[in-house]
Write a structure and sequence with these properties.
The complex is a heterodimer.
Chain A: H1 7-28, H2 47-52, H3 66-77, E1 131-132, E2 138-139, H4 141-150, H5 159-168, H6 172-180, H7 187-199, H8 207-212, H9 220-230, H10 238-241, E3 255-256, H11 269-273, E4 282-283, H12 305-315, H13 338-349, H14 354-357
Antiparallel strand pairs in A: 1-2, 3-4
Helix pairs in contact in A: 3-6, 3-7, 4-7, 9-13, 12-13
Chain B: H1 2-26, E1 29-30, E2 33-40, E3 43-44, E4 55-56, E5 62-78, E6 84-94, E7 102-103, E8 109-110, E9 112-120, H2 133-137, E10 153-159, E11 168-174, E12 177-179, E13 186-188, E14 192-201, E15 205-212, H3 236-246, E16 250-257
Parallel strand pairs in B: 2-15
Antiparallel strand pairs in B: 1-8, 2-3, 2-7, 4-5, 5-6, 5-9, 5-10, 9-14, 10-11, 12-13, 15-16
The chains are: A mainly alpha, B alpha+beta.
Chain lengths: ~375, ~260
């Protein structure tokens, strides 16, 4: 065999391979190299959401990427962000509980309880008003993610300390490098990564969604419950929680005083704005996944859906800022029959999405 | 021959361009701005008035306003020849929160004198369920049992009724009238055209569209909140009356020009 005869061909082949590899590096690059770009990741948006709702909100300075979401997920489940490294975001936003907490008030690292029930986390990329928390004090998911870390009754840490812990933890600098192109960690990148993960928490496969897709029929009780929901003279729930089938979020993402108290220990939205007209107003929670998100209301005062329905039926109380949508406050509520109450509950439970809480993408890594 | 062809082409190009330029110079197109304001019989309603200022309606009930949102669509400029330039689209005004109080359509209007009008709400052709994603997320929809489509207005607040010292809520919601008491759903379009009269479009034209809220309770139907305060969406006759009252609600403030 004449090896020398093949030298020119081998030379050309080698040059070609090097060129290809070089080009490949230019396209993707390695973290911390100039021009490196993490891998774009599209949200898994349900088809009906695409048809009916505006596009989800994804900030231009924090696009969804595979590396960012993976990092955000790791951070969400890692107690490293808390002052004593014992409490993760997932400690109060538990997947099996609709990313809420079945305890009325979640205790922080010092054992001190907050004064509001942990809010469920799903479909938040469609909150076009971009007010987060029960009182809407955080504008954008990125800003929201910054607050629990330094809240003295939650993770009770400082951002310099949290960042220092991450910087020293094996693996994290590399993950930040892959997600954001730098291994020098800061709080902004932490909040961006967590926000990216939270935006992936999409729930759109409840029984009612399946009904809308023509896959199943509602039961007679569920159908009557839906009628109660949209009937002005009975439930009239749709003015705050959305009109089916055209609002799949089941919240107006706005703030209301829904007749819980005559006086307020917690001023809610009013404490944020300082406007007395907003004292006692809290964000409308979504009705999705109620099967997993008890207790209910901003302060978790109701342990069951029956108690919630009873409140709107007979338990409304007047206060100066009560929302006019609580139109039957003069009679204590809308006075539902026992059957309508049971059917309304059946319908509300049809909005729960088992595939969401069991989605492997959303479980602890 | 070739020389003549080039000369001919240059001539055509020159005069063609001249025509376009002259048209643009003689009748330029301008963006227009609409500013929506609200008042109670001439007394302007501004943010501090919501939930606090007490108004007395024609029937004598004292009321406050907590929330006021309304939708207008299809602004039309009709010239003296009857030709209409339509701005297809809608604007949902949230007066309470000061959102969309200014509407600047992208479509330009040729300089000139026109009759200005718009549709309050959506007419039947445009009032299509789930057609507008931004309105879906605003919770502006109407249940299908009531004909679907969208609200036209939501005015809410409290009033002092004649049976209790505690203020009672009212929900003055306007939609396409629907009667679902029979076997078939009966619908009647209650949107209406608001004719604002003659306007002149010129550079930086701005039009103030004023809503006199008191008119909703006044003319031609004197509104009794003690009787008609809530559950009005399903009240066919109430929707007809609200539509009738709405026809005298809007007016145009004198034209102004604003520097861009």
């Amino acid at each position: 065999m004449n090896y020398f005869k093949n030298i020119p061909a081998l030379f050309i082949a080698t040059i070609c391979c090097l060129t290809i590899i070089s080009c490949a590096k230019d396209e993707g690059g390695k973290p911390e190299e100039e021009g490196y770009q993490p891998t774009p990741l599209e949200l898994k948006t349900p088809t009906m959401f695409k048809q009916i709702l505006d596009s989800p909100i994804i900030p231009s300075d924090n696009p969804q990427t595979e590396e960012g979401v993976a990092l955000g997920k790791k951070l969400f489940f890692d107690p490293i962000l808390s002052g004593d490294k014992t409490l993760a975001c997932a400690g109060c936003h538990i997947p099996a509980e609709g990313f809420s907490d079945s305890r009325q008030f979640s205790p922080g690292i010092d054992g001190i309880e907050g004064r509001r029930n942990s809010m469920p986390l799903f479909n938040l990329a469609w909150n076009y008003k971009e007010n987060f928390f029960w009182d809407g004090r955080a504008i954008s998911l990125e800003n929201q993610a910054l607050q629990p870390v330094v809240d003295p009754v939650e993770m009770h840490n400082t951002w310099p300390n949290a960042v220092s812990s991450l910087q020293a933890a094996p693996g994290y600098p590399e993950l930040f490098s892959e997600a954001f192109g730098t291994s020098t960690i800061d709080s902004t990148m932490v909040s961006k990564a967590i926000a990216q993960f939270v935006r992936t928490l999409i729930s759109g496969n409840s029984r009612y969604d399946q009904f809308l897709r023509g896959e199943i029929e509602l039961t007679e009780a569920e159908q009557n419950g839906l009628d109660v929901y949209i009937d002005e003279t009975r439930g009239d729930c749709f003015h705050c929680h959305g009109t089916p089938p055209n609002n799949l979020l089941w919240t107006d993402n706005d703030f209301h005083n829904n007749g819980l108290d005559e006086t307020f220990d917690d001023l809610g939205r009013g404490a944020v704005t300082g406007d007395p007209r907003e004292f006692g107003l809290f964000k409308t929670p979504s009705l999705r996944n109620l099967a997993y998100t008890a207790p209910y209301m901003h302060d978790g005062r109701f342990e069951t859906l029956e108690e919630v329905i009873d409140h709107y039926s007979e338990g409304l109380v007047y206060s100066e800022t009560i929302d006019p949508l609580m139109k039957a406050v003069g009679e204590g509520g809308v006075q539902l029959t026992e059957k309508d109450k049971q059917d309304l509950k059946a319908f509300l439970l049809s909005l729960s999405d088992e595939s969401f809480i069991n989605n492997p993408d959303f479980q602890k890594p | 021959m070739k020389k003549y062809i080039i000369l001919f082409a240059m001539t055509v190009t020159f005069f063609g361009c001249k025509d376009v330029d002259e048209e643009e110079v003689i009748n330029p197109n301008y963006n227009v701005t609409f500013n929506f304001t609200q008042n109670w019989d001439g007394e302007e309603i501004t943010d501090p008035d919501y939930q606090t200022t007490v108004y007395t309606n024609e029937n004598g009930e004292e009321l406050t306003i907590s929330r006021l949102r309304y939708l207008i669509s299809d602004v039309a400029f009709t010239n003296e020849d009857g030709d209409t330039t339509l701005i297809k689209g809608y604007n949902l005004v949230n007066a309470r929160k000061g959102i969309n109080l200014q509407y600047k359509p992208s479509k330009k209007i040729q300089e000139g004198t026109y009759n200005l009008s718009f549709t309050f709400g959506f007419d039947n052709k445009d009032n299509v369920s789930s057609a507008y994603p931004d309105l879906n997320t605003e919770g502006w929809n109407v249940p299908e049992d009531l004909g679907g489509g969208y609200h036209f207005m939501q005015m809410e607040g409290t009033f002092t009724n004649n049976t209790s010292s505690t203020p009672a809520p009212y929900l003055y919601h306007t939609i396409r009238a629907a009667d679902n008491t029979g076997d078939d759903l009966l619908l009647q379009d209650t949107s209406f055209e608001v004719n604002l009269g003659t306007v002149t479009v010129e550079k930086n034209s701005s039009f103030e569209i004023k809503m006199n809220v008191a008119e909703w309770y006044k003319n031609p139907n004197k509104w009794d909140l003690n009787i008609l305060n809530s559950n009005l969406m399903m009240n066919f006759d109430a929707q007809i009356m609200m539509s009738e009252n709405g026809k005298t609600v809007f007016s145009l403030e004198e034209e102004t020009t604003v520097e861009e």
